[in-house]
């Protein structure tokens, strides 16, 4: 692997869609960036880069495992010279009280020797803003947004100081918007004050990109931060403005067309994805899987492949497991939340594998956990970032994949406009 003399930014993302969102943001801000799946093998050939985003599937696994995998990624990034490591979490702070943001932050903080960690999931471009420590999704607080019904990480408290305090061993402070608005020195002074009180992490308000630029300037002087693409934007702009990184115009890494057939898989049950599936019905064949059939082992994946194979030769198809929140809740009540999630992810991976064997080379996947299961099954070790389809979702070109050239789009459940599937396929040639 070829890297710049010293990696300017190391990132650990807790899911694969989140990683591609961050890699997209860093690329657009001028950093040469690559997304790897897990810690890359030494023989993975990658171009020279300023930033590496190591993708983990650690958002919804047992906390101890999330900690050990994140620490291994951090050690690898530090070993390549990364002075700053960003732990990329979801812009909707997806995690239960038994969740992993706090434990991973605590472990990375200890490893980094960081006094006080900056934390913000703000990502204004996608409507995620933080005020007085409360996360807003568009116009509503997190606990009133559709995230209250997320299948794996239902978010019922919008106050992130409280949410993080329930997960972390350290006390959590707040840097409010008034302080951020006064500039980097005011933020530094507030952090020093919090640190003096033994507070080990601070949620920082951010409403506009300019707030994230201030935060980025401060964060760049630290060893560790926690947040979504917004703080990535701030860090990237700080690295460019201080001359640490020479800005590079985003190249069209999607490069030459790959051809082959195209397919879409949706495992996200978010309102945005449900709407995108409904729109897709008008323009491509759509198969709705029977989620109960998947769990009771009734050969749903095989049935889906038999349906899809004759159709993909004529044009793209979409296969979806997604259901509305009341049906998700009913299914989980019958079979258990984890069993449902895992069984459907496994079926989606089976379907993706079968589709690729049948000649699919362009694949759109909706859902973070779903994307993780699919990419792992396809044994793709990394991605280069291509053009942006929608905020937070780039076209990705697989590197080092056994199956050869492939283009993917890994869509966070919540991202993209109503016509997302068509928009994506239009840019994936
Ligand atoms: N019909 C369904 N009922 C219950 N759970 C489902 C259904 N379809 C998919 N799932 C599961 O819901 C979870 C969705 O998570 P994810 O793929 O991360 O989407 P998002 O990006 O919206 O968070 C996955 O574990 C998936 O297997
Ligand atoms: O920050 C975000 O919102 C996304 O990058 C993200 O993490 C996506 O997670 P999923 O919604 O589970 O795909």
TrEMBL record:
Domain Four-carbon acid sugar kinase nucleotide binding: 264-421
Pfam name, any one: SBD_N
Catalysed reaction equations from the record: 3-dehydro-D-erythronate + ATP = 3-dehydro-4-O-phospho-D-erythronate + ADP + H(+); 3-dehydro-L-erythronate + ATP = 3-dehydro-4-O-phospho-L-erythronate + ADP + H(+)
Keywords associated with the record: ATP-binding, Carbohydrate metabolism, Kinase, Nucleotide-binding, Transferase
Gene3D superfamilies associated with the record: Four-carbon acid sugar kinase, nucleotide binding domain, Putative sugar-binding, N-terminal domain
Domain Four-carbon acid sugar kinase N-terminal span(s) in chain numbering: 9-233
Any GO molecular function: kinase activity
Top-level EC class: transferase
Source taxon at top rank: Bacteria
InterPro entries: 4-carb_acid_sugar_kinase_N (IPR010737), 4-carb_acid_sugar_kinase_N_sf (IPR037051), NBD_C (IPR031475), NBD_C_sf (IPR042213), OtnK (IPR050007)
Keyword Transferase carried by entry: yes
EC number: 2.7.1.217
Role of this protein: Catalyzes the ATP-dependent phosphorylation of 3-oxo-tetronate to 3-oxo-tetronate 4-phosphate.
Family under the similarity heading: Belongs to the four-carbon acid sugar kinase family.
Name of the protein: 3-oxo-tetronate kinase
Organism the protein comes from: Bradyrhizobium hipponense
